[in-house]
Amino acid sequence: MFESIPPIAQWLRRVAHWFCGGRDDFREFQERKAGRGYRARRNLCVRVWLGAGVLMLACPGAARLIPLFLAATFLSFAVLDEQ
Known about the structure:
mainly alpha; about 80% helix
């Protein structure tokens, strides 16, 4: 019964392609995402977030959670930026 319903991620991707499909910057972004370097940097971001999550579970408390969250976010943005 539920096999015919696509996952929400596929639906959102289809909407983004429909909405932004003709734009040059969107096309460049899709090409950049397909590259080996971007996938390697994305995997590094996943490892950063997994490490931050483990630290957040090991050391609970708002005084530690907020800086870890902000540091992981900053590192993710820094790693994914090509320049």
